[in-house]
Design brief:
Elements: E1 10-14, E2 24-31, E3 38-44, E4 51-55, H1 57-62, E5 67-76, E6 81-84, E7 88-91, E8 99-102, E9 110-112, E10 115-116, E11 120-124, E12 130-134, E13 146-163, E14 165-172, E15 178-185, E16 191-196, E17 199-202, E18 211-231
Antiparallel strand pairs: 1-4, 2-3, 2-5, 5-6, 5-7, 8-18, 9-12, 10-11, 11-13, 12-13, 13-18, 14-17, 14-18, 15-16, 15-18
Length: 232
């Protein structure tokens, strides 16, 4: 991650089991962009300790988004030994986002006062319960696992760690129930509203921000929800 590179740069540590005093060790930082490549002069091993080579931060950042290999070479002048480590792939860039999913397949069918599954808590309207059911056969081609039924009026999903992307699958038991969403932003005293129709729903989250709560406003009867997918 470019933001995680310290001011002094990227360190390459060269060490191997047979390292002895008198060996010479060099290193290479090879990028497809020659301006972002370095060939370090060899250093003489004087105390059999690991050697360090530092790639300046500006050079490392110049190779952002391009394939890079880091490796070191060992030479022993007296006996002509020359060896090189295998190249270690390095990528300078923001980490690729990881998508998490939950289909509630670990839950037993039945009624629950609330459901907590590690990263989030699902709670129903006061005086009601959540019901876990097997996804209907008619839904098997588009959903996996089980579905959670929210009855009458309201449901809340609270994320213990705020998310920047969120989607899910929802369905109704009739042609009359509708759902509105309230999207609550972390550290901001506000929320956005969004309509919701049966099918896959992608929650509209403002770029660069995260949410920690999603309220489902159910009118007038009940909805079913499954296949949550989110990114941090």
């Amino acid at each position: 991650d470019p933001e995680g590179i310290p001011a002094e740069g990227v360190k390459i540590t060269a060490a191997f089991p047979e390292q002895l005093e008198g060996y010479w060790v060099g290193a290479q930082w090879v990028c497809t962009d020659e301006a972002a490549s370095l060939d370090f002069p060899a250093q003489k091993v004087t105390n059999a300790q690991a050697l360090e080579f530092v790639v300046p931060k500006a050079v490392a950042l110049r190779g952002e988004g391009a394939p890079i290999n880091a490796q070191y070479k060992v030479a022993r002048v007296e006996h002509g030994l020359e060896q090189a480590s295998g190249p270690t792939p390095v990528y300078v860039g923001s980490p690729a986002p990881q998508t998490f999913t939950e289909d509630f397949s670990s839950l037993e069918p039945g009624s629950y006062p609330s459901i907590e599954l590690g990263p989030f808590l699902i709670t129903p309207w006061t005086g009601t319960q959540l019901t876990v059911i097997q996804s209907p056969t008619s839904q098997s081609s588009i959903t996996q696992g089980k579905m959670i039924k929210f009855s009458n009026r309201w449901g809340l999903i609270t994320f213990l760690k705020p998310v920047k992307k969120l989607s899910f699958y929802t369905n109704t038991s009739d042609n009359f129930s509708t759902t509105g969403l309230r999207v609550y932003y972390k550290d901001f005293p506000r929320f956005d509203t969004q309509g919701c129709v049966p099918g896959y729903v992608s929650v509209a989250i403002r770029p660069g921000e995260t949410i920690d709560r999603l309220e489902l406003d159910i009118m007038p009867n009940e909805i079913y929800l499954t296949n949550l997918s989110w990114e941090y």
